[in-house]
Amino acid sequence: MTAVPFDQLGGFIWFNGEFVAWEDARIHVLTHGLHYASAVFEGERAYEGRIFKLEEHTERLFNSAELLGFKIPFTQDEINQACIEEVERQGLRNAYIRPIAWRGSEMMGVSAQKNRINAAIAAWEWPSYFKPEERLKGIRLDISDWRRPDPRTAPCKSKAAGLYMICTLSKHAAEAKGYADALMLDWRGQVAEATGANIFFTKNGVIHTPTPDCFLDGITRRTVIDLARRRGHELVERAIMPEELTEFEECFLTGSAAEVTPVSEIGPYRFTPGEICQQLMTDYDAEVRGRPAVKAA
Q1: Which fold has domain 8-124?
Q2: Which CATH class is domain 132-288?
Q3: Is 53 a catalytic residue?
Q4: Is the distance from CB of 220 to CB of 279 less than 8 angstroms?
Q5: How does pLDDT run across 69-109, given as a tens digit for each residue?
Q6: Which phi and psi angles does 219 have, rounded to 5°?
Q7: Domain residue limits, the chain
Q8: In this structure, what DSSP letter does residue 205 have?
Q9: Cα separations (Å) of 19 from 92, 117, 187, 239, 243?
Q10: pTM for the complete prediction?
Q11: Which is catalytic among the residues 53, 71, 157, 159?
Q12: How far apart are CA 297 and CA 286, in angstroms?
């Protein structure tokens, strides 16, 4: 992560259809998205100048906005092209891209039907989400006190800003204890995900992962599932209870930011990064660079 504050990085940001100087991409303090979390976003990575699964990310951005009850005033093709041009204007080859859409400041209150829908895209250089020395040996996770909510209480299929408040609280609490991140359970007490990544486990050569019924079915998650199946691994999506963690051998996280990251510890539970995790790290690295290690059947 850069040591320079993000508002001082420099370059250009695509903002409501045009490129503006980085420092001029500003919004008013009474923006609805700031007060009421009426904002949706994506996290994407570019590898060697190519944004991985750009179209899928943009489609999810639009679906997220629809779930929050607003329409992004650009086409998906326009957003795709703006993402590509943003990376090019920033002179980046390997980058993180953040498209975001939000309700503006025309109305201030819970009701905001007449507010303008704004959109912006920023890109910057971003290395591994976790410290390289931690990632290779497996990161340590705390177990969060916060839980992913019942789908009847929040739009859990939307990548919505408000849903990340408990993620920030969980990650801050974990880091204060010396952990890299936190595992979050769901409202039923089942294993859900980390604060910004999906989670997988292995047992006797079989890969297990929680069913994404109250959290995002991540684009990286789906990519890794495909890679695992190409390798001939059996993969089971199911409810996983915390007490089962004693039975698993390997554990790893997946996400656009996290990529494929081994886990060595979750609270009192221990795991050893092994062959399956290492192979999927290698396969994912090849996949995102357009050099698939394993061809789809």
Answers
A1: D-amino Acid Aminotransferase; Chain A, domain 1 (3.30.470)
A2: alpha beta
A3: no
A4: no
A5: 999 999 999 999 999 999 999 999 999 999 999 999 999 99
A6: -65, -40
A7: 8-124, 132-288
A8: T
A9: 16, 17, 42, 45, 51
A10: 0.93
A11: 159
A12: 17
